[in-house]
Amino acid sequence: MVRDVAFGQYFPAKSLIHRLDPRAKLVMFTAYIVIIFCTFNFASLAVTTAFTVLFVALSGVPFKFYFKSLKVIILIVLITSLLNLFYGSGEPIWQWWIFRITQNGINRAIFVTLRIVCLILASSCLTFTTSPTEMTDAIERLMKPLKILHFPVHEIAMMMSLALRFVPTLLEETDKIMQAQKARGSDFESGGITKRVRALTPILVPLFVSAFRRAYEIATAMECRCYNGGDGRTRMKSIHLSARDCISFAVLGLVITGVILCNIFLEPAI
Amino acid sequence: MSFITLKDVVFSYDDIESNPNAPRAVDGVSMSVEKGEFVAVIGHNGCGKSTIAKHLNAMLLPDSGKVFVDSDDTSDENKTFDIRKKVGLVLQNPDNQLVASIVEEDVAFGPENLGVEPEEIRKRVDSALKAVGMYEYREHAPFKLSGGQKQRVAIAGILAIQPECIVLDEPTAMLDPSGRSEVMSTLLKLNREKKMTVVLITHYMDEAVLADRVIVMDGGRVLTEGTPEEVFSQVELLKKHRLDVPQSAELMYRLRGAGVEVSSIPLNVADCISALEEVLR
Predict the structure, then answer these.
(1) Which one of A176, A210, A226 would you mutate to disrupt binding with B, by most B Cβ within 10 Å of its Cβ?
(2) Beta-strand (E) ranges in chain A?
(3) Which of B81, B115, B143 sits opposite A169 (nearest CB)?
(4) What is the tens place of the pLDDT at every residue in B219-251?
(5) How many CA atoms lie less than 13 Å away from B263 in the CB half-sphere?
(6) Interface touch B115/A234, C-beta < 8 Å
(7) Distance CA A240, CA A20 (A)
(8) Which residues of chain A lie closer than 8 angstroms to B111, CB-CB?
(9) Domain-by-domain residue ranges, chain A?
(10) Does A219 touch chain B (CB under 8 A)?
(11) Alpha helices in chain B (DSSP H)
(12) A-B contacts at Cβ under 8 angstroms
């Protein structure tokens, strides 16, 4: 049940996007989030959407995985686009009781839908093509300058990668505990919200207890493998920028320039 | 001096100084492990065998007595990492030993901690994974592997540190029979082919039979030790301490009790058959 969440999972392959420097991917993703919310007319929206489609197509991950992660947010997309549809300003095209639809509202709905879909596609693309280790490695390297301020960069990166590693393990465990409690007559599926929330206690308590025990054992296992904090550590997969990364930066640069130019020279649609 | 030497080790999980009557997990254990040996330590739950395992790589330090690894005292803090480089410890639950989300990245964790050069790490990871027969799975996620496979990856993670001795604390306790045999054959291969010193802590007598030497523990002390033949022929002593003996040894023991003359105590099925043939002839 809890295991078919596709969002946030790594998909091992050898595509062009997989081989990009994770730091480059992370920086590009951050820039991309900003740019996707700076699209104010259809031309710039088309440019960013095309960019997303390009990356998704190059990622070598079957589209059904992207579709799976889109399925999770379909409700959010529907609600926000409906809200936007009815909250547009300007002359109404259609009106009934308190509901009125304007051209501005339709545009807003289209924009918000495409923006969220692009955002999910792009973030899925990032997590599908970047292993958690690469990701935390990239975060650690990017945040390295903060070390001067005694910010525990390595520790945070380590905690993140351990947390990511144990997501499936803990999900599996939750499933097991739920089944065990069901076998003893626990009921999670009926009753009001308070009753259902209360029914979670017999799941959460054993889950927390076992998580603490696990944490202790992991710490022991890490010490057994000579872990001694981040000082003097090396990495098997050292990451470095290559021509590929420069090209993708250039493409993103073009997209950013395109969006800015469109915003300057074309009328905003919303 | 032996590779690993324990001298009158006493250890309590309570504070033994303020409370001298605190229960002792290990109560005066002396033993040694030679290079290239395959030693099995057997005993009940709570007999102190896991505590002993953690003493061998300085995870625990004795309250009194000494542990020497390659003539280094484990209580010397400057030597802790040298000792852990020489003696690798594999724990019981394979899930809680794998720290990375990809098999090969997990195996690389140890050498990365030691600051080994990237190309050298790559070589070590590949050879460690080949040694445990998990090379084809190097890009898999650990949570999709079976218990036996995970435990082999955990062993590879220790091998990549290139220790001289590998200590395993009940590595098969959480595995199904096929996982158990996978792990055991991996260990035997490492010991026979790579001359790796192996200390196997277990409560399965059938695994202990495969070792060069067996140490039996009970109540925090060493009950008896010797070759599997020597140890398992003391059926009465083991029974008195509620320990099992391998099935074939048990059969012969009962036949003896029934008045059948049996020359030796066989430890595996093949020996058992030939011993029975001898009796029937």
Answers:
(1) A226
(2) 92-96, 99-102
(3) B143
(4) 899 999 999 988 988 888 888 888 888 888 888
(5) 10
(6) yes
(7) 9
(8) 234, 236
(9) 2-265
(10) no
(11) 49-56, 80-86, 103-113, 118-131, 147-159, 177-193, 205-208, 228-232, 235-240, 247-257, 269-280
(12) 102
Q: Does B116 touch chain A (CB under 8 A)?
A: yes
Tell me the C-alpha distance between A135 and A127, whole Å. Answer: 8
Q: Please give the CATH architecture assigned to the domain spanning B4-227.
A: 3-Layer(aba) Sandwich (3.40)
φ and ψ of A89, to 5 deg: -105, 170
The 10s digit of each residue's pLDDT in B183-209 is: 999 999 999 998 999 999 998 888 899
* In chain B, where the domains are located: 4-227
Tell me the C-alpha distance between A48 and B106, whole Å.
Answer: 37
Residue numbers in A near B122 (CB within 8 A): 236
Looking at chain B, the whole-number percentage of residues with pLDDT higher than 70 is 100
Residue of A nearest to B85 (CA): A226
Ranges of residues in chain B whose predicted pLDDT is under 50 = none
Closest CA relative to residue A51, chosen from A262, A255, A260 = A255
pTM above 0.95, yes or no: no
Return the closest-CA partner of residue B151 out of B126, B175, B178, B130.
Answer: B175
Q: A188 falls in which pLDDT band (50, 70, 90)?
A: confident
- Asked if the interface predicted TM-score (ipTM) of this complex is over 0.95, the answer is no
